Amino acid sequence: MPSANRGFTLFEVVVVIALVAFVYSIAIPQFSLKSGAEAATKVGRLAEDVRSAFDLSVLTGKPYRLVFELNGGRYWLETTDRPEFLLGDQKAQSDPTEEEERDLDSATESAFLEYESLAGEPIIDPDTRTEFKPVSPVVLAKSKLMRPKWTRVSNLEWRERTIGPYLMIKEMQAEHHATKQSVMDLSENGRAFLYFLPGGYVEKAWMIVSYKKDERQPDDSITPYTMKTNPYSGTLETIGTGEESTVTFD
Predict the structure, then answer these.
(1) SS3 content of the chain, % helix, strand, coil (to 5)
(2) What is the pTM for the complete model shown?
(3) What is the mean pLDDT of the chain?
(4) pLDDT tier, 62 (very low <50, low <70, confident <90, very high otherwise)
(5) CA 179 to CA 157: how far, in whole Å?
(6) Can you spell out the DSSP letters for 17-72?
(7) Rounded to an integer, what is the distance from CA 62 to the centroid of its chain?
(8) Which domains are present in the chain?
(9) Is 58 exposed, middle or buried (0-12, 13-18, 19+ CB in 10 A)?
């Protein structure tokens, strides 16, 4: 009578191993093909978005900026009604988060309230009893001295994008940055901006788009894309593969 606990024969073990190897030989190339095709699509879409933002700035006569959330891989377009603004004489070590921008605006508002109080008490015309509030040149220039208010562009063409799930912007540096912005150095909600000026100019910038190992860790075993902007044509082009292609600014 055959045993109920009979083990596998050598032939059966060999067959199972061969089947497993066959499944892996099919599944792994299909996954690589899918991830590679989607990566190329995402990189192409990013280049299209840069050109689209450039064209929009020229057509509307308004400044725009692309906001990249390096950790999450998200990016979106913002604009301001301020036709002219300064990026600042000092190169930025990093771009502010949303919370930091709110804190900066609040601090500026508080400073102007102090300037208003220093201007003195209101003057009352004894005949008409009309009250005249004294102001200083600084208070009169408030609208120009305040930071521009940036708001998201939200329409059928412009919605929040993502560079994921296979890719991440590992590093980026634009003209207004003092040094490169790295996903591993920024905070969890750290951001990097790319500005578009209505005269037909996008900041000089380069970025390294890498495959992801996990949420904040690039996969350095796969060659990344290195990309740079062309300031007066408003394009973003791939200039090579590997970090040795990184460009610098004077």
Answers:
(1) 35, 25, 40
(2) 0.74
(3) 79
(4) very high
(5) 32
(6) HHHHHHHHHHHHHHHHHHHHHHHHHHHHHHHHHHHHHHHHHHHHT--EEEEEETTT
(7) 19
(8) 10-85+160-245 (3.55.40.10)
(9) middle
